[in-house]
Amino acid sequence: MKAAASYDSDQLLDAILKSLDDDKAEEVVKINLRGKSEMGDWMVIGSGRSTRQVSAMAEKLTEKLKNEYGIISKIEGKDIGDWVLIDTGDVIVHLFRPEVREFYQLEKMWTPGAQDDLAMDPTKAP
């Protein structure tokens, strides 16, 4: 297990992205939050095909972070598996079923130009 101070948020992001790729997460998006929010340096959003896959990806990721980085992540929604939030401190991870992700359109709140799209068409608001 690595010591808590032996990694930076970019290394943590890479480990998270690799874990999600290994678990066949779909449409993975990373959003740089530096200078935009105090909640963390990065946000990662990804989808699983089913509640079972979403929950399993979250479980595997939190175990990997615990074993390899000593990070005890805060996790919400794993038992239901529609939308799982994993807070590592530096990286916030959202895992969705596709229908739930489409409904909330979370990445549009953090992607440049998305607010302009909403201003032109308020029916696109989450």
Automatic annotation (TrEMBL):
Superkingdom assignment: Bacteria
Keyword Isomerase tagged: no
Main location: cytoplasm
Residue intervals passing through the bilayer: none
Annotated InterPro entries: Iojap/RsfS/C7orf30, NT_sf
GO biological process per UniProt: cytosolic ribosome assembly; negative regulation of ribosome biogenesis; negative regulation of translation
GO CC terms: cytoplasm
Subcellular locations according to the entry: Cytoplasm
UniProt KW keywords: Cytoplasm, Repressor, Translation regulation
Gene3D superfamilies with a match to the protein in the record: Beta Polymerase, domain 2 (3.30.460.10)
GO molecular function: ribosomal large subunit binding
Quaternary assembly: Interacts with ribosomal protein uL14 (rplN).
Family according to the record: Belongs to the Iojap/RsfS family.
Family annotation (NCBIfam families): rsfS_iojap_ybeB
Task of the protein: Functions as a ribosomal silencing factor. Interacts with ribosomal protein uL14 (rplN), blocking formation of intersubunit bridge B8. Prevents association of the 30S and 50S ribosomal subunits and the formation of functional ribosomes, thus repressing translation.
Protein name (Swiss-Prot/TrEMBL): Ribosomal silencing factor RsfS
Name of encoding gene: rsfS
